[in-house]
Structure formats: structure tokens, C-alpha cells
């Protein structure tokens, strides 16, 4: 048996659904999979702004995601431009006729090291995007999305026409 309405209120530390702040709404959404469908529906009926809040949260996550990507893209372009500038300088030095073999070898090693640094930076950036943005999405919208999807899927299954509603 899932959580009752009283148990949910205790876990959220509220006395009334009117006291459900945005912060506590995220916690509420995270609890939805542990609730009976009827309990979740009863609570949501008492809080009609839930759907609006869920949509607003998803929109804010999208804005943060786009802003982070844009900022990250600009930063990455600057870093890659700096690496490219260093390679151009090294190529110019390598073109000089009066270099010894050891000097040429040293410059070639610097170019190779530059390439390794570019590759490492690319890997770090991918790790950043994967980790940080993933956490933002999971923290901010994951609980609401999971709760809404869970509840919606459970309702459709209980109504027995979930497959028909999905267009299958």
C-alpha cells in the first residue's frame, strides 16, 4: 500500500496543501510514485496549480540548459582558438631554416602535446555536459517528470485504455 495523504503531508512537513511551496512541490513530485493513484489525484485536485508549476519548472530547466550550453560553447570556442593560435606560432617556428634537429624535434613535441591537450579538453567538456546538465535536469525536473509520468501511466493502466490512448 502506498503513502496516505496524511503521511505525505508529514513527510513534507506541512499542515495544509495551501502551504505547499515550490521547494516542497518538488519533494511532493518525488513522492508521487510511492503514493496510491487515488491519493495523488486527491492531492493534485486540491492544488490546481500543480500542472502549471510542473510546466514552469520544465521551461526553467530548458532555459538554464540553453544558457549553460551557450556559455559553455563560447568558452570552448575561446579555448580551441587559443590552442589553434599556439599551433600556428609553433608551425611558424618550425618553418625556420636555421633550426637544429633538436629544436625541430622539441617544436614537434610541443605540437603533439597541444593536440593531446585539445583532446583532453574535449573529453572534459563532454564530461561536464554529461554530468552537470544531467544533474540539473534530474534535480529540477526529474522528480516532477517522473511523478507526472508515473501517475499518468498508472491512471491509463487502471482505466484499461492506455494502449488505445497512445495510438497503438
| CA-based gyration radius | 27 Å
Q: Could you tell me the mean pLDDT? A: 76
Instruction: Catalogue the unreliable spans.
Output: 153-157, 161-168
Number of helices: 6
User: Helix and strand succession?
Assistant: HHHHHH
Question: Biggest sheet: strands, sense, closure?
Answer: none
What is the helix content? over 70%
Structural class: mainly alpha
**Approximately how much beta-strand content do the residues carry?**
under 5%
DSSP, total strands: 0
> What is the count of distinct domains?
1
Shape descriptor: rod-shaped
Describe the protein's architecture and organization.
- This protein is an all-alpha fold and 168 residues long.
- The protein has one domain (1-168).
- The protein contains six helices and no strands.
- The protein is rod-shaped, with a radius of gyration of 27 Å.
